[in-house]
């Protein structure tokens, strides 16, 4: 990896368990000398990508907030999808969420809140478990078999812990069925109090731009017309996909 690549790799060292890092932590994690680690920190501080907090610890910097603003403005899925999401919220009263697959990570990119917003453990920017919940499953189902196999091979144990088949042939069949259905309904898979109905926002090549979901409390299942929810979410996802095409 180039020196620039290693320096930018500093940003990947921060997560929910490591909200701050010292220069010593960074040097050890990247397997570089301490002077090199300090140089990376200094350059990232100057760029606003890191900030000094307390006790010689560093956290991600304010420049990332600015960059996130530009990411939102440039995202074609959000540009075309937000009006549809608002229509779905108005029609159902439920939260509407867009989620996308970045490599092997599933991230929520936007949420339009309903009348009684759900309490979500995963919001914009926090990686979601890839095998639990409606949105991740429709995203994985839209992948080509070879790409899906790579994810299965790399994270098979996690898939099994999530209740998915341990054999590739059965795993593939399950996701092929989701792809054929064109939607997925999850009940308490990721968060026990929540249900979701998701559909892929289709690409012309058969893949998916993202997943569109309606999220609501499981206590509403007895009065919710799930078939109507499926119709609304698949029709909304198809409209967004058509606009993107």
UniProtKB/TrEMBL annotation:
Sequence ranges assigned to domain IclR-ED in this UniProt record: 63-245
PANTHER family: HELIX-TURN-HELIX TRANSCRIPTIONAL REGULATOR, ICLR FAMILY (PTHR30136), HTH-TYPE TRANSCRIPTIONAL REPRESSOR ALLR (PTHR30136:SF24)
Residues covered by the HTH iclR-type domain: 1-62
Keywords: DNA-binding, Transcription, Transcription regulation
Lineage of source species: Bacteria, Pseudomonadati, Pseudomonadota, Betaproteobacteria, Burkholderiales
Protein name: IclR family transcriptional regulator
Annotated GO MF terms: DNA binding; DNA-binding transcription factor activity
Keyword presence, Transcription regulation: yes
GO annotation terms (biological process): negative regulation of DNA-templated transcription
């Amino acid at each position: 990896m180039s020196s620039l690549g290693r320096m930018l790799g500093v940003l990947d060292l921060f997560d929910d368990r490591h909200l701050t890092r010292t220069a010593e932590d960074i040097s050890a994690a990247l397997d570089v000398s301490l002077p090199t680690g300090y140089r990376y920190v200094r350059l990232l501080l100057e760029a606003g990508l890191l900030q000094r907090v307390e006790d010689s610890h560093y956290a991600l910097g304010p420049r990332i907030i600015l960059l996130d603003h530009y990411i939102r403005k440039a995202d074609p899925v959000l540009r075309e999808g937000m009006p549809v999401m608002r229509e779905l919220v108005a029609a159902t009263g439920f939260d509407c969420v867009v989620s996308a697959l970045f490599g092997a990570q599933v991230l929520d990119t936007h949420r339009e809140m309903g009348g009684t917003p759900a309490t979500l453990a995963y919001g914009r920017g926090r990686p979601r478990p890839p095998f639990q919940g409606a949105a991740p499953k429709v995203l994985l189902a839209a992948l080509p078999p070879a790409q899906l196999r790579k994810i299965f091979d790399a994270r098979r144990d996690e898939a099994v812990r999530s209740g998915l088949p341990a054999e590739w042939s059965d795993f593939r069949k399950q996701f092929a069925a989701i792809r054929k259905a064109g939607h997925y309904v999850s009940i308490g898979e990721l968060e026990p109090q929540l249900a979701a109905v998701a559909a892929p926002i289709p690409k012309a090549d058969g893949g998916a731009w993202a997943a569109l979901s309606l999220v609501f409390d499981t206590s509403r299942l007895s009065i919710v017309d799930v078939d109507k929810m499926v119709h609304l979410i698949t029709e909304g996802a198809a409209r967004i996909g058509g606009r993107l095409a």
